[in-house]
Amino acid sequence: MEPRGTALLTTLPVERRIAYLERLVRISQILNSTLSLEPLLNVIIQQATELTGCEACSIMLLDKRSGELRFAHSTGEGAHKLKGLVVPMGSSIAGWVARSRQALSIPDARADPRWNPDIDRTIGFVTRSILAVPLKVKEQVIGVMELINKVGHNGFNEDDVQIADALAAHVAIALENARLMAELQRAYDKLAELDRLKSEFVSIASHELRTPLSIILVYASFLQEQVSGQASEQLNMVLQSAMRLRSIIDDMVNLRHVDTGEALLERSTFSMKELIAEVTNEFCELSKAKHQSISLSLGDAELDIEADRQKIYLVLANLLSNAIKFTPPYGRIHISATRKDHELWVSVSDTGIGIPARELDRIFDRFYQVEASLNRRYQGIGLGLSIAKSMVELHKGRIWAESVVDKGSRFTFVLPINPSVVEPMPISGP
Ligand code: ADP
Q1: Closest protein CA for atom 16 of ligand 1
Q2: CB 125 within 8 A of CB 58
Q3: Which atom of ligand 1 is nearest to the CA of 318?
């Protein structure tokens, strides 16, 4: 048999050849414009029936697990009875075509030992001639297309084989597209379900952990006031660990609020200078313990801004605690803030371990940490920067990092000073 794409339909008159090609183009257009399999396959088998002038056409698909061929789509008399019927692989024309991966044209099916009369008997049909072609995706047979009973007496000819072959290629593409789409959909559904479960878990876990943790914090500080010496130091450790746990839970809750859209902005006008002083003060003990210096260059102006103070506090706190954490003892940390036109630019720089260039964008992803978590030297769960980014973007601002490994890092965020009078800004990048 001629392979696909060779001298096309040489025996057909020109006008029939043109009509055929027009239909083929139409099918290609439908194939490119729709992802719904059923209507497309129906169009193809209808066209196959009409173009070859036969009584019926069927598509049988190979079930990978059972190895069976099953009727999936059919035209012609009794088509509705065919759907789902199994065609024996070892004793049928379709089975032979699937196994040998070749087209087969038989003028008198009943005289062929490979023919199986069961289907005719089941649906009350009389098969005379058959043309069957394999449906192949990347050289794998996924089914068979069968044309039944060429009108007239001579059976199917070489042109019919070419038509069937070309249409089979379209069927195979449509089936493969549908399979890929279904796979994609399954993956999306699974992701959506995982996301839902994660949110539910975070919500339950944070709620359930918060109450006992508050009790630990209250009683530990109460006890610490009453004892002295070694017991006080030990209680201090308890308090510090409990506070670390609380900040992790707060991070989880904040992210959940961003995800659910509950993170609304409560704007007020405040001094960025004051806020920076407040955050620096909060972290001063931590940096002192590592003999680090924190310097500020904030200029003379108050740097008033209209924003959500608590959320900007979170941004600054995350950046400063990272700077302290990732800078070795005796290192330097510098915070600067300045007004540029209608924006406020705030930077937190350090002389710490730095971040490789290829990681600079990824560190803002959730749970992303440059050092793999199992051999980590630094505490944290990789949420701080993604929270900072979400908070800045809620304000229609932007945040980014610059760094040189072993020299240090600079994190900068930019916020509109008075959002009610400026245009929205792009959401990321310097
Ligand atoms: P965490 O600090 O809990 O690990 P973050 O989201 O705050 O999570 O930071 C993500 C990662 O980015 C950190 O684990 C670290 O690898 C890197 N990183 C953040 N800030 C700095 C910094 N100032 N210097 C070096 N690396 C940093």
Answers
A1: 370
A2: no
A3: 7
pLDDT of residue 240: 85
Q: How far apart are the C-alpha atoms of 26 and 191, rounded to whole Å?
A: 37
In a domain, 40, yes or no: yes
Length of the chain: 430
* Ligand 1 center–CA 247 separation, angstroms: 15
| Dihedral angle sign, alpha carbons of residues 56, 105, 166, 36 | positive
For residues 162 and 113, membership in a common domain is answered with yes
- Domain contains 1: no
User: Is the same domain home to 219 and 244?
Assistant: yes
Encoded tokens for 408: 């240090």
Amino acid (1-letter code) at residue 38: E
Once rounded to an integer, what is the mean pLDDT over residues 25-42?
Answer: 77
Residues 46 and 181 in one domain: yes
Give one word for 296, left, alpha or beta, with left for phi > 0 and alpha for psi -120 to 50. Answer: beta
pTM (two decimals): 0.59
Between CA 95 and CA 76 the distance in angstroms is 21
The answer to whether residues 356 and 334 belong to one domain is yes
Q: What are phi and psi of 357, to 5 degrees?
A: -55, -40
Between residues 175 and 423, which one has the greater pLDDT? 175
pLDDT, tens digit, 9 for 90 and up, residues 200-259? 887 788 888 888 899 999 999 999 889 988 888 889 889 988 888 888 888 888 887 887
Residues 69, 198 share a domain: no
Please state, in angstroms and as integers, the Cα–Cα distance from residue 369 to each residue in 382, 396, 411, 430, following that order: 5, 25, 16, 22
Task: Give 24 Cα–ligand 1 centroid separation in angstroms.
Answer: 58
Q: Which of 240, 259, 278 is the last residue of a domain?
A: 259
pLDDT in tens, 292-326: 999 999 988 889 999 999 899 999 999 999 999 99
- The DSSP code sequence of 304-331 is EEEE-HHHHHHHHHHHHHHHHHTS-TT-
- Specify the range with the lowest mean pLDDT, choosing from 83-97, 156-170, 189-203: 189-203
**If DSSP codes are grouped into helix, strand and coil, which group holds residue 280?**
helix
Report the domain count for the chain.
Answer: 3
* CA of 216 relative to ligand 1 center, distance in Å: 28
Query: Among 321, 326, 327, which residue has the most ligand 1 atoms within 8 Å of its CB, making it the best to mutate?
Result: 326
Which of residues 185, 210, 237 is at a domain's end? 185
The reply to whether 296 falls in a domain is yes
Residue 51 lies in a domain: yes
Summary mean pLDDT of the chain: 87
pLDDT of residue 3: 40
Domain that holds residue 377: 268-416
